[in-house]
Write a sequence for this structure.
């Protein structure tokens, strides 16, 4: 039942991605590949008064990689750089099975991916790209 709901959330983001599109000349622009699955993601962000006023992505690949990117744009919008880094860290921590997001967050749907280790990179791709774009560690 829960798994079905999670699949629905992922497919909803995959079919109707939030904040999809290019941001030409963005402050943050980073492209990453996941050769294991063939996923590709480019993330973009602009900051104003320290906060991310625009967060977008473009990409292609499996439903997990694209849905995760879509969820990430929603999560990081309005955050400053430090908060964005913290959210990325928190998500990466969830993807190694240590921290949980409340069931009410779409991101919780990606928790199920942990059971498929070869797909974890799909889920973290956009987040790794954003972190690299911020100039942080991967
Ligand atoms: Zn993938």
């Amino acid at each position: 039942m829960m798994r079905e709901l999670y699949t629905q959330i992922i497919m909803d983001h995959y079919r109707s991605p939030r904040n999809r599109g290019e941001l030409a000349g963005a402050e943050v622009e980073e492209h990453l590949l996941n050769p294991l699955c063939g996923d590709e993601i480019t993330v973009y962000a602009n900051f104003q008064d320290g906060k991310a006023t625009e967060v977008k992505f473009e990409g292609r690949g499996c439903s997990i990689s694209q849905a995760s990117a879509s969820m990430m744009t929603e999560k990081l919008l309005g955050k400053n750089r430090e908060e964005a880094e913290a959210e990325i860290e928190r998500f990466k921590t969830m993807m190694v099975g240590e921290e949980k997001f409340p069931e009410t967050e779409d991101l919780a749907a990606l928790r199920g991916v942990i059971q498929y280790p070869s797909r974890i990179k799909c889920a973290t791709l956009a987040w790794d790209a954003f972190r690299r774009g911020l100039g942080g560690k991967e």
The mean pLDDT is 93.
